[in-house]
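Why should sequence recovery work at all? Because a backbone constrains its sequence more than one might expect. Tight turns favour small or flexible residues, buried strands favour hydrophobic ones, and helices have their own preferences. The token representation captures these environments compactly. In the example below, the structure is given first.
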């Protein structure tokens, strides 16, 4: 036993240390007798430069990972870094859009308020940079996080969710309104709660009040201010839902200024849809029972569910029943909100000031009315609108009369401002909720529009709904008649109210009163273009409904407005082309219906409107010019001064050639010589005036202009010669082309008249009396006269000697001009040369004795410069086939001229023009089929 104990003690025997001796080394001692060298890895020490970073050297992955940190300050810094990174490097947004949206949306419900505010700012920055089509695939995630924030138990998170909703409403209203059902329920839960004992079936009952307003004392704002902010967002959301609904044919929006248009009941619009479009979801088909004979929207059979652009099923307000169910829940809550707000107003306690509202109560009432107004527009289709209005009238007309119409119209109460120290932070929050001060006029106008929509349609007389519509009618009439300054939106709503009252009341007295009030406002000065256009559109739509409504037909106010339109058009002139275009459009619509008041006024102002110098027909844009020319067809009479203006408009070049041709055709149709008059329409002008109009337009120059060309300076500049007996005034290419197109149209009108010989006699009488004594003639007029004479000449027609001499002089002068300018003419003048040459050839080949008079030229009096020109003229005539018969008949004169030119040009070398002339004669005349009839050969010419 002793030995075992001794051995056990030996195992743990303490080593005795001796002084002066080294301490024995422990068994687990580390040997430090070695050297080490540092290993430098520069690649690992470098900063990651694979992507952009913030000033803290944090990349996109670092910032996104910090959003999951438990510390609120870290998450707040990460959001600030994200905004910095996206601002400096926009390319990051394109690469990481999906993850950015998911991570930022996840912190909408964060417990820290600063984090939520920073997340909202980042979301706004992303929304400002990314279009809606790129966000569409990720928007369901944003909508889900927004719904969670709106229904969160924390009131502060709900308040910040409203700011997120503002961002989405500003930038992505279409995507937000694509699936409205969930968000509409969230809006209800923000201001109310379900009562105990109510079920889903009871909630869907239109008479069951299963929702009640809720109060949360823990909010930073009062319950009234919170409900006001929620109603403001609800109104914007419903507006987005209404705007994103598909617009049917015939619907007119606010931008088109035509909510006053009536609906076309019973009109079926056919749809052309291919299988590929249906398969690719490019269009939808709604199937009705009974093959469309009696359409029913409650059909149990459906071809396929409606899908939106993202491919998901549409939900929410897609049926009239769904809209009614939602309105049955929301409208009672809105009435309770208004009653609660009005109950806190002290002015309701006194009868005298009951119509005065505080700014807060007025803001609440405006939002309530705006939401009610939007609820009416949620009808999925136009045919559901009437049933929805009838349902609103049946369910809530009594409540609206009691709550809204009791103290109408409303005014604002002057609240004294007490100078006291207020909490700046709370004051700022209240200001963001309440917004700007509401105008009492806007509130009353909105109330009028809401209440008038509930009036009974197809009423039998004005006594229906007269008790509560009378104050509204009085307010509308006084507002329009008392020089009240209205904004465009307010005027638009008032006109819509007037339109609704007129269609529902169906009273001539009421219609005249309302139209007179609108006309009083229409006569005010300094109205903007948009406002003036809106009023014009309103009256135009009213006039379109005249034949369908007996109480609108033969309205004195409407007739007075129509009669003033031409006068306004003259006064406005070209200062505002857009407004002038609207006036012309209204005038044209009334003129096409034969309104006597408008046509009488238009007849009186016609000379001013069609003035060739200052009239709007030459000063307005092309579209308005076309409408003004079309108005000529409806004029009762076309007197001589008006025809003179129209002729000058055609020839002055202030309107296009095609429009001038249209004007000539319209004047032609209104004359009795055309042989075509529509219905009982009488001829607008006499035959003499019509021929005078054509002749004046054919010349292309006024008498004053032609007289000025005969002055001594012009005659000396355009000196005449034997080869050019008439001085030709050269017109510019653009002017000549314009006049030539007009001449072609005039010739067409002359050819369609009954007797060409009589027209020719009239035309040559005008030439003999007014033009044959001219020494200087514009080349465009000379060519036009030759073109017209050749088109009217008949076999039995014998031209006058004086007229024939004048035409031969014009023809010879034009041919000389062609030869003279042939070398220096450019390619741009080809059209002018071809037109002149065609007119000369047509006249020489069709007018008897005209070519003989040209060939009877005294060659002996020609100088050396004119002989080559004459030779070139003869060569050109010989080469033209239509003149072959005429030249053969005048061979003796032709041979005599060639012989004389040959004798005068004898020399050592023959000139080229003479060689060309002899060659053309030998080919076309000497070797012709009638060459054996005593004609001289080429050899005998020398």
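From this structural description, the recovered sequence reads:
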């Amino acid at each position: 036993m002793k030995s075992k104990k001794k051995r056990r003690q030996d195992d743990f025997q303490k080593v005795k240390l001796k002084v002066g001796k080294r301490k024995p080394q422990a068994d687990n001692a580390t040997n430090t007798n070695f050297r080490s060298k540092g290993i430098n890895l520069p690649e690992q020490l470098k900063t990651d430069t694979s992507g952009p970073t913030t000033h803290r050297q944090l990349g996109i992955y670092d910032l996104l990972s910090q959003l999951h940190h438990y510390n609120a300050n870290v998450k707040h810094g990460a959001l600030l870094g994200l905004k910095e990174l996206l601002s400096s490097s926009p390319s990051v947004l394109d690469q990481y859009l999906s993850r950015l949206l998911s991570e930022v949306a996840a912190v909408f419900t964060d417990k820290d308020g600063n984090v939520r505010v920073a997340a909202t700012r980042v979301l706004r920055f992303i929304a400002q940079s990314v279009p809606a089509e790129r966000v569409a695939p990720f928007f369901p995630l944003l909508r889900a996080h927004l719904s969670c924030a709106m229904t969160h138990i924390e009131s502060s998170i709900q308040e910040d969710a409203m700011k997120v909703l503002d961002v989405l409403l500003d930038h992505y209203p279409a995507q937000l309104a694509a699936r409205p059902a969930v968000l509409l329920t969230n809006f209800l839960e923000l201001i109310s709660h379900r009562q105990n004992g109510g079920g889903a079936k009871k909630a869907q009952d239109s008479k069951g009040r299963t929702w009640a307003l809720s109060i949360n004392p823990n909010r930073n704002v009062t319950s009234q201010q919170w409900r006001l902010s929620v109603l403001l967002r609800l109104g914007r959301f419903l507006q987005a839902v209404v705007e994103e609904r598909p617009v049917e044919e015939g619907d007119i929006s606010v931008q088109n200024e035509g909510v006053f248009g009536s609906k076309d009941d019973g009109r079926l619009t056919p749809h052309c849809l291919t299988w590929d479009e249906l398969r690719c979801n490019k269009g939808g088909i709604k199937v009705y029972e009974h093959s469309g004979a009696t359409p029913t929207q409650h059909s149990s059979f459906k071809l396929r569910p409606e899908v939106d652009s993202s491919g998901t099923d549409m939900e929410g307000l897609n049926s009239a029943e769904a809209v009614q169910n939602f309105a049955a829940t929301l409208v009672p809550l809105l009435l309770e909100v208004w009653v609660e707000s009005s109950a806190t107003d002290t002015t309701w306690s006194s009868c005298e000031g009951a119509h005065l509202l505080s700014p807060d109560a007025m803001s609440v009432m405006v939002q309530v009315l705006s939401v009610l107004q939007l609820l009416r527009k949620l009808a999925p289709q136009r045919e559901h609108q009437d049933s929805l209005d009838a349902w609103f009238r049946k369910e809530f007309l009594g409540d609206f009369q009691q709550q809204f119409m009791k103290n109408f119209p409303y005014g604002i109460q002057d609240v004294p401002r007490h100078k006291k120290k207020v909490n700046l932070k709370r004051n700022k929050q209240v200001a963001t909720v309440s917004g700007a001060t509401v105008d009492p006029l806007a509130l009353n106008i909105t109330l009028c529009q809401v209440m008038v929509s509930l009036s009974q349609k197809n009423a039998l007389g004005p006594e229906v709904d007269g008790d509560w519509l009378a104050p509204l009618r009085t307010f509308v009439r006084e507002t329009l008649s008392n020089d009240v300054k209205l904004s465009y939106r307010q005027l638009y709503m008032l006109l819509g109210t007037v339109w609704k009252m007129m269609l529902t009341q169906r009273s001539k007295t009421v219609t005249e009163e309302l139209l007179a009030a609108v006309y009083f406002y229409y006569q005010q000065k300094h109205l903007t273009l948009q406002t003036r256009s809106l009023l014009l559109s309103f009256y135009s739509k009213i006039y379109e409904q005249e034949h369908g409504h007996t109480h609108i037909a033969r309205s004195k106010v409407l007739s007075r407005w129509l009669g003033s339109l031409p006068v306004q058009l003259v006064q406005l002139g070209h200062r505002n082309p857009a407004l002038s275009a609207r006036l012309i459009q209204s005038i044209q619509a009334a003129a096409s219906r034969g309104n006597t008041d408008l046509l009488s006024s238009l007849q009186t102002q016609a000379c001013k409107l069609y003035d060739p110098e200052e009239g709007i027909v030459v000063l307005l844009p092309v579209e308005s010019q076309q409408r003004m020319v079309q108005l000529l067809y409806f004029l009762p009479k076309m007197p001589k001064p008006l025809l003179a203006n129209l002729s000058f408009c055609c020839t002055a070049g202030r309107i296009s050639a095609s429009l001038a041709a249209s004007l000539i055709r319209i004047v032609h149709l209104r004359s009795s010589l055309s042989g075509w008059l529509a219905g009982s329409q009488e001829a607008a002008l006499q035959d003499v005036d019509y021929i005078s109009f054509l002749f004046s337009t054919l010349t292309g120059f006024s008498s004053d202009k032609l007289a000025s060309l005969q002055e001594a300076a012009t005659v000396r500049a355009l000196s005449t010669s034997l080869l050019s007996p008439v001085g030709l005034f050269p017109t510019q290419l653009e002017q000549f082309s314009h006049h030539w197109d007009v001449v072609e149209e005039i010739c067409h009108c002359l050819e369609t008249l009954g007797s060409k010989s009589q027209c020719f006699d009239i035309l040559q009488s005008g030439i003999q009396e007014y033009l044959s004594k001219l020494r200087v003639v514009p080349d465009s007029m000379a060519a036009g006269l030759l073109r017209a004479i050749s088109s009217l000449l008949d076999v039995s027609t014998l031209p006058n000697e004086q007229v024939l001499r004048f035409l031969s002089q014009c023809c010879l002068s034009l041919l000389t001009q062609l030869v003279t300018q042939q070398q220096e003419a450019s390619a741009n003048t080809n059209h002018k040369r071809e037109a002149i040459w065609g007119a000369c050839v047509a006249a020489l080949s069709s007018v008897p004795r005209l070519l003989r008079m040209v060939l009877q030229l005294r060659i002996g009096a020609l100088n050396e410069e004119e002989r080559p020109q004459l030779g070139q003229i003869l060569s050109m005539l010989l080469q033209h086939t239509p003149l072959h018969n005429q030249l053969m008949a005048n061979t003796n004169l032709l041979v005599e001229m060639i012989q004389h030119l040959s004798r005068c040009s004898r020399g050592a070398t023959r000139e080229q023009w003479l060689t060309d002339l002899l060659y053309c004669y030998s080919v076309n005349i000497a070797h012709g089929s009638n060459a054996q009839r005593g004609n001289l050969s080429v050899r005998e010419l020398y």
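A few observations help interpret the result. The chain has a mean pLDDT of 79.
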